[in-house]
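Open question from group meeting: does this chain pack into something compact, or does most of it stay loose? Before anyone orders reagents, we agreed to write out a predicted structure and look at it together. Recording both the input and the output here so the notebook holds the full record.
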Amino acid sequence: MSLGFTVDGVDKAAVVIISQDGSVEQLDFGKQSATVFTLEDTADEAITFWRDVPAPTLTITDLDFANGELFVSGISTGEFASTLRRVPFPFGASSTSTSIEIFHAGHAQMETRAPIRAMTVLELDGVQTVVAAYTCTPLVTIDVSALQDGSSITGKTIAELGYGNTPLDVINFDARDREGNVETFVLVVNREMDADLITINALTEAAAADGLFTAVPGLGAKAGVETTTVPLSAVLHAADQNSQFILAMRRNLESGAMELVSFRKGSFFRLSNFISEYNFPDYQYQDNKFAEGVRMFQNLMKKDEGFPDQVR
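Structure tokens returned:
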């Protein structure tokens, strides 16, 4: 599906509402009420990265809305450039701006400049907490109550997830395990690596522990909270869709097109993305419990993805 909006012969960006049935409607901002919040102490335009990337492009690196507040990560002016803002909504009440430093176990140093790249806000053992991921890829927890205006605080590094990577999204959602129990998970969507799936229990334990303050033993080494890697590739943004699926905006690696697709929780891949041994017409599932489980799950995914005629 491709979307395009033209005003006076010029292509324009637009916000659209896509329903479960696939219908698309452009959001009419003229019919919406709005309030405005202006960021202060934004990054210096004279600073550039790799010669032509202006620092203000990192003024806002992620947004998350929780409990009536908008959390805004990015960089500002000053030595402690990494900044996390809390802005009450509707805009108008006083906001806070807090400088954040962390220990980056992959770089073996404290860091005050590189901003949070992706985050989510949730409760860990009753404490409202920001779970934040940085480039290259430390995972950090920050107690929301510590985010006081004008202060500088140290986030707790609970994991080192791998080098050479930029996290793109951190989301949390509920899903049922194999026994039917509901559990909360955090998913870190990465640009250069597989996504990392973390249970709420593991996060809670890590947030209550001391955190990481020593370097990892070598390039590529991981440390801290245990994660499960899941094969979400070319995903740019993700969101909790419903009790069974997450929704993702991804780049089709074959056509290059942008796609809005759903991934079933528990599998985090789409069966129709590839051709495997199971797809050959003469394949016969073995007569055992494992093979029967695979057959049933694959049939479920075939229906999910619009291929009910492929059910076997």
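Observations to bring back to the group:
The first strand starts at residue 5 and ends at 7.
The chain has two domains: 5-269, 270-312.
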